[in-house]
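Hello,

Our lab assistant flagged a job as stuck in the queue for most of the afternoon. It eventually completed. Since we weren't sure the result was trustworthy after the delay, we are filing this so someone can double-check. Below is the sequence as submitted and the structure that was eventually returned. Let us know if re-running is recommended.
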Amino acid sequence: MGLKEFTRDDPIFVNEAVLRDNYRPEELVERDEELSEYQEALRPVINAAPPKNIFLYGQTGVGKTLATRLVLNQLLSDQENYDDLNIKVVNLNCKSASSSYQVSVDLVNQFRDTSEKIPSTGYAASQVYQMLWNHINDLDATHLLVVLDEIDSIGSDDDILYELPRANDNESVEDTLVGVVGISNDFTFRDIECACEGQPVR
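-- returned structure --
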């Protein structure tokens, strides 16, 4: 019988790609209030003030990561209107990290070329943090927002949530104002919020 000709199916879907896990829409519908609250929490950054630490909680699939991408893209775009701003963003998914040490190593490697990345073991935690502070100090940025997606993966080992928000107060980082955006599916993880002086957005 041989091969049949490839023909297209009837176009049931206008765009079947929207059903795939990796689809990223350009807008988030029915989330205007949450997006507005999110932007308001980031307003200090556009005012060239120290950023607030923000924690997002919600069930899987409600749009936390997408909302973060949309809001931060808007912030990065709008900073072009101000000569005194140079905002940088670092995104890290913590799903494969089970400790603050691993998160800090992954953050260091975000700033490094492949040939210069450090292994996940072999350094004292203080050495890894010093590497991270050095990279941030070398950024020549006014602000650095560190987005830690699925941050609840680190469990109770939350040192990174103390170190990053206090990097300026502890004089580990001098000219760049550091803020943390934590994203979590675990509603009980908000208990850490007080320790980090975070502002929850749900």
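-- support follow-up --
The delay was a queue issue, not a problem with the job. The result is valid. The chain is about 30% helix and 15% strand. The longest helix spans residues 64-78.
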